[in-house]
C-alpha cells in the first residue's frame, strides 16, 4: 500500500497537530509554519484527491463543505473575513499532495496576493 500522506497521519493521530475542527469527512488544524495571525488548514480526510481541481471534479459537495468549514473557522478564530488558498501544483508552492485549503485571517496585510 502507498505511504499515507502527512495529513492522513494527522487524521490517524500518528503525528500530533493542533486540531481545531473535525467531522466525519473533514479535519482542520493549525499550520505548523503560520503565515498569518490565523493560519489553519482545512483537509478532507480522504487523500483520494491531490488538489482542488481533482476534488472539484470528483466530489464538489465535499469542496463546498470545506468552504463552509473555512467560513465557520474564520468566524470562530477571527472576524469572519478570510483568504482561502489552494496551492495547486509544485510550481505554485504545493508541497503536500493531499488536497487542503489554507485559511488565512486576522490582520492580513493588503496586497499580499502572490509576490510583491
Ligand atoms: P502546501 O505548500 O500548500 O502544500 O501546504 C502545506 C502546508 O502544510 C504548509 O503550509 C506546511 O507548513 C503545512 N504542514 C506541513 N506539515 C504539517 C504538520 N505536521 N502540521 C501542520 N501543518 C503542516
User: How many angstroms separate the termini?
Assistant: 42 Å
Total strands: the figure is: 5
Strand count, sense and barrel status of the largest sheet are: 5 strands, antiparallel
- Gyration radius over CA: 14 Å
Question: What small molecules does this complex bind?
Answer: adenosine monophosphate
- Classify the fold: give the CATH topology: HIT family, subunit A
Question: Which strand order do you get reading across the main beta sheet?
Answer: 1-2-3-5-4
CATH architecture tag: 2-Layer Sandwich
Explain the layout of strands and helices:
Blueprint: H1 6-11, E1 19-22, E2 26-30, E3 38-44, H2 52-58, H3 60-77, E4 83-85, E5 101-105
Antiparallel strand pairs: 1-2, 2-3, 3-5, 4-5
Helix pairs in contact: 2-3
The structure holds adenosine monophosphate.
3D structure, described in words:
By secondary structure, the protein is an alpha+beta fold. The chain has a single domain, classed as HIT family, subunit A (2-Layer Sandwich). It contains 3 helices and 5 strands; from the N terminus they run H-E-E-E-H-H-E-E. It has helices at 6-11, 52-58, 60-77; strands at residues 19-22, 26-30, 38-44, 83-85, 101-105. The chain has a 5-stranded antiparallel β-sheet, with helices on one face. A hairpin with a 3-residue loop joins strand 1 and strand 2. 24% of the residues are buried. It binds adenosine monophosphate (AMP). Adenosine monophosphate is lined by residues 6, 15, 17, 29, 31-33, 41, 87, 93-96.
Amino acid at each position: 500500500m502507498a505511504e499515507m500522506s502527512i495529513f492522513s497521519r494527522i487524521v490517524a493521530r500518528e503525528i500530533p497537530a493542533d486540531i481545531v475542527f473535525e467531522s466525519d469527512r473533514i479535519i482542520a488544524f493549525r499550520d505548523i509554519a503560520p503565515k498569518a495571525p490565523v493560519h489553519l488548514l482545512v483537509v478532507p480526510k480522504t487523500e483520494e484527491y491531490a488538489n482542488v481541481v481533482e476534488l472539484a471534479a470528483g466530489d464538489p459537495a465535499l469542496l463546498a463543505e470545506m468552504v463552509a468549514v473555512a467560513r465557520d473557522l474564520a468566524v470562530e478564530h477571527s472576524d469572519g473575513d478570510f483568504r482561502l488558498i489552494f496551492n495547486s501544483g509544485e510550481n505554485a508552492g504545493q508541497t503536500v499532495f493531499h488536497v487542503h485549503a489554507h485559511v488565512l485571517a486576522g490582520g492580513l496585510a493588503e496586497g499580499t496576493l502572490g509576490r510583491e
